[in-house]
Structure formats: C-alpha cells, structure tokens
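Collaborator request log, item 7. Partner lab (contact: R.S.) asked for a structural prediction of EAL domain-containing protein to inform their binding assays.
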Amino acid sequence: MAKDCQYCGTQVIVPDQGSLVVNHKDVRWEEYPPKLMSPRINEDAVIFSYQNKQQLQAAVRSFYEENSSPYWVHIVNDENSHSFPISIEHLYERLTNSHMSDIIHESSFTAHLQPIIDVRQNKIYGYESLLRTEGHTVNPAELFSYAARSGLQSMLDQQARKAAIKAKHDHLEKGQKIFINFLPSTIYVPEFCLKHTFKIVEEYKVDPSDLVFEVVETENISDVDHLKSILETYKSSGMKVALDDVGKGYSTLERLTLLNPDYVKIDRSYIDHCHVNVENQKFLKEVVSRSKKLGIKVLAEGIEKEEEYLWLKNIGIDFAQGYFFGRPLPTPEKDLILPKLSTP
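Returned to partner:
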C-alpha cells in the first residue's frame, strides 16, 4: 500500500480490515452509526474498526449518502499501522465498484494499435495506441470515467502510457511513430510527474523521437499555460506532441501558435462526409493552411470512406487514420495492404 505522489491522488489498495477515521466536524455520525462497528472517540475524530470490506462499505455508504459536503477520511491498516487519506467520494467508488479498481491496480489491459498512413508516400507512418481491457467487457471510456470518479486517473494514465510504450517496443520498427494519449489533468508538476514515463522509455530502450504524446480528446483544458509546460517537457526530452480534436472545445485554431504542437489531429466530426459538407470543408482548408504556415503536420482521423480520404488528400493533409485503412489490433498486421483508390 503506497502513495506515489501527494499531487497525483491517493493510489492505494484498501486493506481487508482496518479502521476508518472520520473527523468530528465532517459528519453527524451519531445519527447513523454503522452496524457492527463500535466507534472509538478521541478529541478530534471518531474511529470505526471494520473486520471486512462489507462492514467498511456499509459505513462509507452511510456517510457518503447522508452528507452532501465533500470531505476526507483516513483508512488505517491495522497490521502495520499505516494510514492514508482519501476523499469519501473516492473511497465510496472504489468499494462500490471494486472490480473496476482491480482492473486498474492489476493493469488488466493492453494496447491495441491502429495504423496511421503517410499520405504522400502511401505507407504506414505509425500507429495510435488505444487502451483495451483484457478479459473484461469494460469500455475504455467507462474505465476512464470510473478512474476520474475514484481518484485513480493518474494511476490509469501512467499504466496506459506504459502499455503503449511496451507495444512500441514489442511490435513496431525503429522509426515508426506511436501516438499515445495522455490526460493533462493528471500531470501537476511536469518535471516530476513525467519521470515515470521517461523511466519506462529508458527501460524499453525506445527512441524518444518515435513517441508522440497527444492530449486526450475528453480533456477540458482551462489552464493553457500549464498544458504548454507539459508539451514543452515532452519536447525537451526528444519526444513529439500532438494536439487532438482541433475544432472541438479547447483545441481551437487560435491556440496552435501558442502551443506549437508537432501534429494536429482534426476532430472527427469534421471528417464525416467532408467530401460533401461545405461548412466542414471551409474549416478543414483553414486548418491545413494555418498549420502549414506554422510548420505543423496535419492528421485526419476517423476516415471511413474513400471519398473522404480523396478529398482530404487533395487539400494537402499529411497523415490519415480511420477504419478505411485498418482497425485497432493487439498485434499490427506486418503486411497491411492499403486500399486501392478508384480515383487518382
């Protein structure tokens, strides 16, 4: 049981038996004392001993559902007297959906790889790493949503990066890029929080220049300067960075100059039927034009039709990705045959 970093949230395994410590001022514990748990009271807190997770879960559910204000509690491992703080919301989620916590703690997932095509050379440029759970039916979006609710985002994000770097080592050739999603909200102090990632890169002897870290699409960035410092930390270590979903949310064209990524990935909503959607065509041409002036490469993802690809190729995109070329696979096809176009 350990806590990796005071900034990264509590990354612990709740002991099977121990004590729950609640501050007097946080809850009205007298009104609903958990069954089978005799409290010990001191000057500052009420201490409930529990013999199993079921007892703890009953107590936490009672506290969580009856108190609207967020607060922190302490869990004490009675075997070694180790104590750690955790918010009542995070503890409630981990106990209520323990199978999801197990997936994250045990790294029960792997990286699937989807090909990215170099448009000019008509060959594979690299792959995007996409998280998939092993032996489970849990959707990756559901897993990341749960991680946010349970305070396990940093752990999941770190492990997902590790899975991607391992996939690069195991399956891709030197020079082939791998695009790796990351959550800026889990990186509080870039120089410290990214040490884990840089250590994994060294461990697998991967060329840093083959790694492209892209801001995950679900992030809502409010602190652009902080995001810029994260991207600069990656770049100073010889890695590349990508701004995902340009055209959606924070990823506006106006921020390209400020963030200066190596790649931009266009939001897939602009790709769908782009060959006939005049409004989308106007935006896509602007992205390509502005990116070329800044020396930024443009990647269009979500391509599913030949007509979409041909139109995008004609306006000068650099790279393409989507089901039209290949789906994510645990082991990429070594001899992937690219689609033959009906129109030059």
